Amino acid sequence: MTLSDVARQKEPTAGSTKKYWIVNSEARVLFGEKGLLIRQGGVVTRSAGQAVSKFVNALLDGAENGMVSIDTGSVDAGKLAQLERLMDQLVEANLLIEAEDGERYDPVVVGLYQRAGGIVDRATIARRLATREVAVLGTGELADRLRESAGQAGLRVTGADAVESAYVTVVAGAHDDDDLLEEWNQRALAEERPRPWLAVLPFDGERATVGPWVVPGESACYQCYRLRRAAAFPDVAVSEELAGVTALRQKLDNSARYPGLNLVLAGMVTDRITEFAGLHEQMRQPLPGGLTTFEIDSTGITTEHHRVLRVPRCPVCSPAAGRGYPQVWFPRYDDEQGA
Ligand SMILES: [Zn+2]
């Protein structure tokens, strides 16, 4: 039996062991005159010989559920060493990733594994994604899209009744004065063990936002964001009032008017939350106070990243609020830009 036949073989023979490899879908296999090229980004690995090309072709053809397998029991003793060397080369060339015993292919887990440069094992990532709950609060189209998108990524999505056990919470407000955000902000700050949370706001005619990423006690809180946004309001007489206002409860869901933008917001939130749940301990968490804005104009959707800084003497999150002499804080638009 040739090695290509081995690669093609589906049914394991009696008493044999099957070995599995995950195919790195970020690597491209190219067949040239001089043999096989494996390309990932700017790195190309060359393997000479038509036989190798044929073997790899047969191997990838037989891929099932993102994995290839070989029944080593069906290989002649003389060819086994050659086969093992070849498979090692393909692992080294980054085309294949050796699978763990009993591993099942999960593309999201493999994606995070690759994102972390392989420093977190896939079993750990899978366990974290399966056990860390993501609470999504809010109603309306945008909140629905957030739940749907996070669920499709394999995250455990819960709601308002399970916030106690949530690893991270996403709060989709109807608009930036929504009580839901203010209430959650105070509750998160009062928690003994502060957990990060992410505010998401639909397009309000000016912009949509993902953030701030609030790390209670460490980053700007939601009230800090409101104070800074109000300070940026062009009419100074009104801007002082804006930070403390209460909004009328609006029944109309404005987010329903921008289905495409909602998907973009949901995608960005899913990406951030998935990385946080799967890799948090090994990778730095999203920037505390980090905020991304999305604006729509004739060229399409434009995004910008900002950092919301804490407001000294913020009435909600500053321990110094209401004590001593007030610090001079000049409301400036630049503050909001993170400058
Ligand atoms: Zn604050």
Automatic annotation (TrEMBL):
InterPro entries: Bacteriocin_synth_cyclodeHase. Gene3D superfamilies: NAD(P)-binding Rossmann-like Domain. NCBIfam families: cyclo_dehyd_2. This is TOMM leader peptide-binding protein. The lineage of its organism: Bacteria, Bacillati, Actinomycetota, Actinomycetes, Pseudonocardiales.
